[in-house]
Amino acid sequence: MSLAGLDPTILGPAFLTGLLVLATHVPLGRRVLERGIVFLDLAVAQVAAAGGIAAHLAGIEGDTWQQVAALAAALAGAYALYLCERRWPEVQEAVIGATFVVAASVVMLMLAHAPHGGEHLQDVLAGQILWVGWDQLGPAAVASAGVLAFWLALRGNLPAWLFYASFALSVTVSVQLVGVYLVFASLILPALSSRHAGLRRGFLVGAAGYGAGLLASGLLDLPAGPAVVCALALAAILGGTPGRRAQGASR
């Protein structure tokens, strides 16, 4: 254990990154649970990662263009899943799962012979939240604000096509910042903990998870992404399920 790891110049931007991810993922996570398509973010995140990696391997330089490629892939994948939901709603979750597996396999195949492919794959999955710079937060904040504007304007009642499009945009931005694992954890764990309560509980659970996970990472010299995922799980458990307690009390 070392206090040297608690560097505010590193943990500060990382924590703000987590709050930025939560800003869109908590309300979207509630909608995902309602629609019963829990693994949608994993599938779209992997498709976005595949698009970004394909652009990198094709020699397209610059983070901006790689993010554009990732967003294009995510939007295409989300639109295809939207069409599948309209055509075959009874097997939508299976289609989403299959999309995730295929996209993840494509990523592994593309990186099989790439220099430092293993490190790149780890970055895609676990992310590099500790190395997010202030310059990356600006564009991410603008994209998140756009998604939230639609959400607030429609009071969360997004049409299916707009839900899939905003989901693709949010996930693409988030996966570039924190990786696939944290994208899924940020979307599902706060939503699970607050499913019988308001969005405020979800934001509090998420913020507590990011704060505790980053502190543990700094103090114990642990990988930040996995540490935050575990802290989010613990925060979700401690946050409780108020609907269940209420049902138990009514008996």
Word description of this protein:
This protein has 251 residues and is mostly helical. The chain has one domain (3-242): ABC transporter involved in vitamin B12 uptake, BtuC, CATH 1.10.3470. It has ten helices and no strands. The longest helix is centred in the last third of the chain and has 34 residues, at 160-193. The radius of gyration is 18 Å and the shape is globular. The model is unreliable at 245-251 (pLDDT under 50).
Question: What are the main properties of this structure?
Answer:
251 residues, mainly alpha, ABC transporter involved in vitamin B12 uptake, BtuC, 10 helices, globular, disordered C terminus
Helices and strands: which structural class? mainly alpha
Please mark out the parts with pLDDT under 50 across 5 or more consecutive residues, or reply none. Answer: 245-251
Per DSSP, what share of the residues sits in E-state strands of 2 or more residues? under 5%
CATH fold-level assignment:
ABC transporter involved in vitamin B12 uptake, BtuC
Distance between the termini: 47 Å
Q: How many domains?
A: 1
| Highest CATH level, the class | Mainly Alpha
Main sheet? none
